[in-house]
Amino acid sequence: MNRTAVSTIMRREMRDSLRDWRIVAPILLLTLGFPFLMNTTALLVENFLRQYNAVIISTHMIPFGLMVVGFFPISFSLVIALETFVGEKERYSLEPLLSTPISDAELYLGKLLAAVLLPLVASYIGMALYLVSVMWNLRYHPTPQILVQVSLLTAMEGLVMVAGAVVVSSHTTSVRAANLLASFIIVPMALLVQTESILMFWGRFDMLWYILLILVVADLALVRAGVRTFNREEILSRGMDNLNLGHIARSFRDFLRSGSPTHGDTNAEPVPWWRRLLALYRHDLPRLLWRERSTLGVAALMLAAGVGLGAYYAWRYPLPQGIIPLDHLTDRILQAQGSPVTPGWSWLPAISTRAIFLHNMRVLLLGALLAPLSFGALTLILLLAPMTMVGFLAAQVSIVGGNPWTFLAAFILPHGWLEVPAAVIATAFAFRLGAVLMAPPKDSTAGEALIQAAADFVKVFVLLVLPLLAMAALTEARITPQVVLWVYGR
Amino acid sequence: MTIHAVVEAHGLTKRFGTFTAVDRVDLHVAEGEVLALLGPNGAGKTTTVRCLAAILRPTAGQARIAGHDTVAEAQTVRHLVGLLTEFPGLYQRMRPPEYLAFFGQLHEMQASHIRQRSEQLMRQFGLWDARDHRMGEFSKGMQQKMALIRAMIHDPHVLFLDEPTSAMDPQSAKQVRDAIAALRREGRTILLCTHNLAEAETLADRIAIIRRGKIVALGTPAELKHRLLGDPLTEVRLTQSIDGFLSRVTDLVEIVDHGETWFRYRAARAQEVNPRIVRRLTEAGHEVVAIGELEQHLETVYLRIVEEERAGNE
């Protein structure tokens, strides 16, 4: 890595941003004006709350104000990044840069730093001004922990926005299109800031470390994706942002049939449907499962993590004795599951094959739908959530003196040996729908990779997951209750 | 004397998914030669140049610049080439010296050398007086000349000029063509991509016609004309009707067209044939008003090649 080249790129980009009044004017306003506005707000709120002897203001609201004062200028890193990465492409000034001896990584890093540093410096100046004014007016002194947390959160948020903008920019050829896609960054960031605000007002500053950890992981993932996508081949291979539904449909069909797009290969001899189906089970499915073994491993790991997390929460927040009515289970209670007559179990779906099957199918499909919007993260969380509940309940059983293994063997194992693999497989293939957007395979654009991932998901879901879910639902409705009654019933 | 190929391509192929942009291209450009890559929009000219300039990696085949492989020694190749892109792509808020310093630094040049070279090139291309203006204020011609200076700041071995005059007004285009002609006189090795036939004919030593990623014809303008249009075409104009004279010269030339007082013929060795034709006309009592070789346009050659290639594919 040539640091001189990185620094040359970075300095030019920063100079260019400083010459653009559309960037400089709002940053100056937010950096120099907003902290005093926030300080005035803090004073007014403090005076109001003092009448009611509320002390929340200094301990909770001032750190929140610090975060907001820092966030506004850093949000400009997204604007600068879109200008820097896509704007250059649109104005044709990127190709001359690509013809110089600098490497793709040096160019990426120079632009990344330029987009982050200027807003970050502005954020820190704004935060310093705000802190000085609240220290002067309210005699508030922040703890070192809060200072470090808010400073690091601001920097990591800036990096997420810029690294995310690079990923977004790699899928577009115009600033307009990039701005439209930027909602994939803005919406999660808005949710994140809301979460941080809630945690601050709640006084759970310790939880901010977890947020910071999530941001660091997101930064690493996005920077890795950026390095993969921001290279000469990707940048110059991309055409217009046209949506060609016919081409998408043809590619999807080809991927579904053969695993690779052939477009118009009509030489293949016609094969009877049953032989094609047999080939799918004998060749395609094993090949797909083997190819995705690492993704399946990630999903399995998530499953184990969910159980572990549930157990941890059970130990931390034990339920009152008797809330899990294992000693009073009757056939009537199990049959009425999901209705108000069974307090303690009403959150479970009704025990019918159809209801269970539809419920599981809906959840797994939802995971697939959410994957491209969250780069696969929400898909994994959807798997994590029920397994956390399983772990929580098993651990609770243990806490109240029962045997967790017996509980798992009775409640989960009869149908779980079918349902859990189905969930892991569906989650793994749904996760890929998001992962390929972040890091498309070599020799393939993100669009092609997404279509292939969708075709793979459909193939696996229809041929493997749905049959497994159907058998699992049948077992859960007919056999599991009998096993539970046999073990726990009276 | 050995003529070294500065630009070499062997079976150069570039595919984007299922689309083949460059299809098994073989090229050799000698030191000091100007080769024009001529073809319609989307023919694969720009992709070929990008592969040769080590910006894109070929899917198959290989390319070398001054003996350096464009994949294995990409960074060395980028030091050796200067690329003028189709659009100038200047940073509008920058001034020329600052802009050239930026690109000079990326080429690892010393600051003093950058200053010296910037001044030399800006004076050469008539932009020295505009050095304190922001480049956003430049005319199209000035912008393209500035882009040409950028491509030359590091004194590259080879220049790739991609559509240097496209979308320009005639005056700006002439400015840029004059600048390229000056580089040609300096003995620079240049690969010029264009769909402007006159530009190719005026500026290039050889022309390669590219269509659908394939080189379909390669040679000097004269060679291409001869190959496609046949022997030079000569026209003779007389004071009176040619009457039955034509039958008296069919042993010497092939008459391709004639009118009341004129006729045209093709002859491989015009220097030998023309005096004999004139002699026979004089002997027959005809008075010659004019005799001269008709200009055969490269456009005709180009259109014929493209049509033939299209017909061959169909």
Domain module count of chain A: 2
Number of strands of chain A: 0
Can you give the mean pLDDT of chain B?
86
Low-confidence stretches of chain B: none
User: Which range best describes the helical content of chain B: under 10%, 10-25%, 25-40%, 40-55%, 55-70% or over 70%?
Assistant: 25-40%
CATH architecture of the largest domain in chain B: 3-Layer(aba) Sandwich
Characteristic key phrases:
heterodimer, A: 490 residues, mainly alpha, 2 domains, 21 helices, 79% helix, flat, B: 314 residues, alpha/beta, Rossmann fold, Alpha-Beta Plaits, six-stranded mixed beta sheet, four-stranded antiparallel beta sheet, 10 helices
Task: Describe this entry's structure for a reader.
The complex is a heterodimer of chains A (490) and B (314). Chain A is mostly helical and 490 residues long. Helix content of chain A is 79%, strand content 0%. Chain A folds into 2 domains: 3-237, no CATH class; 250-488, no CATH class. Chain A contains 21 helices and no strands. The longest helix of chain A has 35 residues, at 104-138. Chain B has 314 residues and is an alpha/beta fold. Chain B has helices spanning 45-52, 74-80, 96-106, 111-124, 140-152, 170-185, 197-203, 221-229, 270-283, 298-313; strands at 5-16, 19-30, 34-38, 60-65, 68-69, 81-84, 158-162, 189-194, 206-211, 214-219, 233-238, 254-258, 262-266, 288-293. In chain B, a hairpin with a 2-residue loop joins strand 4 and strand 5. In chain B, helix 3 (96-106) crosses helix 4 (111-124) and helix 8 packs across helix 10. Classes of the chains: A mainly alpha (490), B alpha/beta (314). At the A-B interface, helix 1, helix 5 and helix 11 of A face helix 2, strand 6, helix 3 and helix 5 of B.
